[in-house]
Specification:
The complex is a heterodimer of chains A (503) and B (314). Chain A contains 13 helices and 21 strands. Chain A is of the alpha+beta class. In chain A, the strands form five sheets. Chain A has a seven-stranded mixed β-sheet with strand order 8-9-10-1-11-19-12, with helices on both faces. A six-stranded mixed β-sheet of chain A has the order 14-18-13-17-15-16. A four-stranded antiparallel β-sheet of chain A has the order 4-5-7-6, covered by helices on one side. In chain A, helix 7 runs antiparallel to helix 9 (327-336), helix 8 packs across helix 10 (354-368) and helix 12 (429-440) runs antiparallel to helix 13. Chain B is globular, with a radius of gyration of 24 Å. The longest helix of chain B has 38 residues, at 223-260. Chain B is an all-alpha fold and 314 residues long. The chains are: A alpha+beta (503), B mainly alpha (314).
Chain lengths: 503, 314
């Protein structure tokens, strides 16, 4: 009887050895175009930081999922009766990477720290509306708002709202601790960041990978070469649209072209002549063939838009043809406004964002046909922020530009048009009034109505030319599974990413 | 000779002093508020003002400079805003990439350029000369980042011999380190060699027309000895001058190639610091690079004396 038992053990051992052999690789190398300036999401707005940390290392009470939906996360549910008092019930048994369990007191500490101006939080306005935070017990916490705020839950899911243990505040910058599926194992400055699997992760069966390496490769062509040489498995943001056709032809790779919340617009300085005249702004919009801009500047990738709200937003209305391409009409409008022979203007773009220069070249050519002579001026990003974006907080008084192109990557950013001091200098009391109402309207249908009104108003008033949605371009080796198709929030959530066993 | 060295050292210090002031002013006069670049466009004015104060940006420029200079003189270049690490330590941590890269490129440059330049000169107006000049013209015309990409395509993508970029550090073994630096060193060295070939050729050509070369040949000296003992030795002064200038340019070239090959070197550090307005790092790296270049020039001046006994600088 002993011999068969031994055989069974042997067979089991062999089988396990074979299954280990057949198991898919559990490590992934991801290209990151820029190195994070630090890993503390409560101290930097850098999307490079969010790309590594958000939802991978640190998580929030609420999460924006792959489809842009708000889902319960560290809070397993919440409750509000009046839209002013929100009670969150925390998931039990969630452990930080240092082994300690997440408690309501941590949440209170984190949000209060974000509200404290001494701590230099990059998004203080997300929390400006919070009055009291009361810890009921270890797993229950109530937020009292000064007024109803429609975006309160969304703000708790954003990168500035990650939850970390209070004892780890001092190491957030270089070795952040959180509750996420991965821990920061190593950061070789200038080269790579290595994340390791968190074996205690609170979602069963995740993450699927044992190790993720973010390698910093700034040059898109070098990134493409690294992908082809097999040195990286995935490029999330690093490739340009010009690389897609070539990669799609190659059977070894999979290319994902998805939506983002990044609306690329050409802003016209509304406080400056001639752009202070709505007829001129509409004429410019009519004179631009957006489909051609996408075709020539983006190799056909990117969705044409006609207003500010992006297609991932539940209140999105397609207004791409609201002010269609019509150069004859553009000329007529220009004549009505007193510019029958057109005028000259300067377009300032920052080549750090390649698409702004390319789109600018196409638009310059198109505007020439209606008599508007545009000169392109390339400036460095820091200068762009200082001169064009012109924040009053930085001591800037008047934005110094005629035309400029940039992508607005934030989700739910229509409020920018309600701010007359924003660099558009679009000042419409009516729009501001509707926006203010939308911020305190919680009923979904009523709020949708207001959002539709605002989108139509922006299309008509044309404070900027709404050009296109910057596409999400992901290239991965065949066999990588679970990558997000769209990008509703600037995260590179890798918790469900793995390798298909067939590989 | 001692007075000469002393004078050069004094000039060295004065140059650094001037450069430091220039860099300090330039990075501050540039538009672009460091506080906004760090905290983003949604931060509030109060927080920005606090950060500016913490960075000392709200103090008069002259005071900021004197303060920085006093610290720098003690070897303290400040703390990086991005990385929260001492600038000196950051620079030292990047040197093991950039220095070997520059040295490998320089070695490559000399081993290619000197023989090729001499060959072209001795085969003046013959096929070999034209070929050498054509190759060097190509080398000058092709930017190093592009030839770098071509090298990646050939050796990493097509042949799979070398990695396309990245650097695991020297702790992974000297051979691994050298392999990581090989392609960028070739791209950088070949580009620089193209310039040096032409300098070598024209310097040697000029010497070959001298009377003493004709004399040497007339007394029956073997051609190889004529070249080595008379022509090359005397041509070295202009060649060394060009080499010195090019060593300085290697650093600039390294900035570009470190991006293409994703190497964590000094150039990448500087580039990242400029776009993030990490002023202490920008100042520190610029000062360091400037000091290295001034030092190279200093070494070149000394080399003159060694090469030509007539030069004594008194």
């Amino acid at each position: 009887m002993r011999r068969p038992a031994l055989l069974v053990v042997l067979a089991a051992w062999l089988a396990s050895a074979v299954s280990v052999q057949a198991q898919a690789p559990r490590a992934l190398v991801v290209q990151a175009a820029t190195e994070p300036p630090g890993l503390d999401l409560t101290a930097t707005p850098a999307s490079a930081t969010a790309g590594v940390v958000l939802y991978n290392v640190q998580e929030c009470l609420v999460k924006v999922d792959a489809h842009g939906k708000l889902v319960p996360w560290l809070a397993e549910r919440w409750h509000t009766a009046d839209n002013r008092h929100y009670t969150f019930f925390l998931k039990k048994g969630v452990r930080f990477h240092n082994g300690r369990e997440l408690r309501a007191a941590d949440v209170k500490f984190v949000i209060e720290r974000a509200m404290n101006p001494e701590t230099k939080h990059p998004y203080p306005q997300y929390y400006a509306n919070i009055g009291d935070i009361i810890v009921k017990d270890d797993y229950t916490i109530t937020f009292s708002l000064k007024a109803p705020a429609a975006n309160f839950l969304l703000n708790l899911a954003r990168q500035g709202s990650v939850i970390y243990p209070r004892e780890a505040v001092d190491t957030l910058k270089s070795a952040p601790i959180g509750t996420g599926p991965f821990t920061v194992a190593d950061w070789v400055r200038g080269d790579k960041i290595v994340l390791k699997r968190n074996p205690e992760y609170h979602v069963k069966g995740l993450p699927k990978l044992d190790q993720v390496t973010f390698r910093f490769i700034p040059d898109p062509n070098a990134a493409l070469a690294a992908l082809k040489a097999g040195d990286i498995d995935v490029s999330l943001f690093g490739l340009g649209p010009e690389h897609v056709a070539d990669l799609k032809k190659d059977g070894r790779y999979e290319v994902i072209v998805g939506e983002t919340t990044n609306d690329v617009v050409m802003s016209m300085n509304n406080s400056r002549k001639p752009f202070s005249d709505v007829r001129v702004r509409r004429a410019i919009t009519h004179a631009i063939n957006k489909a051609d801009v996408v075709k020539l500047a983006m190799f056909g990738m990117g969705r044409v838009i006609g207003s500010n709200v992006d297609p991932l937003n539940p209140y999105f209305v397609d207004l791409a043809n609201a002010v269609p391409y019509d150069p004859a009409r553009a000329k007529k409008l220009l004549a009505e406004a007193g510019y029958p022979d057109g005028f000259s203007a300067v377009l300032k773009v920052a080549p750090q964002y390649y698409y702004t220069v390319r789109a600018g070249e196409v638009i310059t050519d198109q505007l020439k046909k209606v008599g508007v002579n545009v000169k392109i001026e390339q400036i460095e990003w820091g200068q762009w922020l200082d001169r064009v974006f012109c924040r009053p907080a930085s001591g800037c008084k008047e934005p110094d530009y005629d035309l400029t192109i940039i992508g607005h990557a934030e989700a739910w950013d229509i409020g920018n048009y309600a701010n007359p001091k924003y660099y558009f200098r679009y000042d419409s009391p009516k729009f501001q009034e509707i926006y203010a109402r939308s911020e305190t309207t919680i009923d979904d249908n009523a709020r949708r109505d207001l959002y539709v009104q605002m989108q139509r108003m922006l299309a008509d008033d044309a404070p900027v030319v709404f050009l296109f949605i910057h596409p999400r371009l992901v290239a991965a080796r065949k066999g990588v599974t679970g990558l997000w198709k769209d990008l509703p929030i600037p995260s590179a959530d890798l918790s469900e990413v793995g390798w298909s066993p067939a590989r | 000779m001692r007075r000469y060295v002393l004078r050069r050292v004094a000039a060295f210090v004065a140059t650094l002093f001037f450069l430091s002031a220039l860099v300090f002013v330039v990075v501050r006069v540039l538009p672009g508020d460091p506080a906004t670049l760090i905290l983003g466009v949604e931060s509030n004015p109060e927080t920005l003002a606090r950060l500016r104060h913490a960075m000392g940006l709200d103090r008069p420029l002259a005071l900021q400079y004197i303060d920085w200079l006093a610290r720098a003189a003690r070897g303290d270049l400040g703390t990086s805003i991005q990385y929260d690490l001492p600038v000196g330590r950051l620079i030292l941590s990047r040197l093991p990439v950039t220095l070997p890269l520059a040295l490998m490129a320089a070695a490559l440059m000399v081993t290619i350029a000197l023989p090729l330049g001499v060959y072209a000169a001795t085969h003046h107006r013959r096929a070999g000369d034209y070929l050498a000049m054509l190759v060097s013209q190509l080398g000058i015309a092709v930017p190093a980042f592009w030839s770098g990409l071509l090298l990646i395509l050939l050796f990493s993508v097509r042949l799979g011999w070398l990695r396309s970029g990245g650097f695991d550090g020297w702790s992974a073994g000297p051979w691994t380190g050298l392999k990581a630096l090989l392609l960028p060193a070739i791209a950088l060295g070949a580009f620089q060699a193209a310039v040096l070939v032409r300098a070598t050729r024209s310097a040697v050509l000029e010497i070959l027309r001298e009377d003493y070369v004709r004399t040497a040949r007339a007394k029956g000296l073997a051609e190889i000895r004529v070249i080595r003992r008379h022509a090359l030795r005397n041509a070295m002064i202009p060649i060394v001058t060009v080499m010195g200038i090019q060593l300085g340019q290697l650093v600039a070239g390294a900035i570009v190639l470190e991006s293409v090959f994703a190497l964590p070197g000094l150039g990448r550090l500087a580039l990242g610091a400029i776009s993030a307005r990490d002023l202490p790092v920008v100042q520190g790296v610029t000062l360091f690079v400037a000091a290295s270049i001034v030092f190279i020039n200093f070494a070149v001046d000394l080399a003159y004396a060694a090469l030509d006994p007539r030069i004594r600088y008194e």
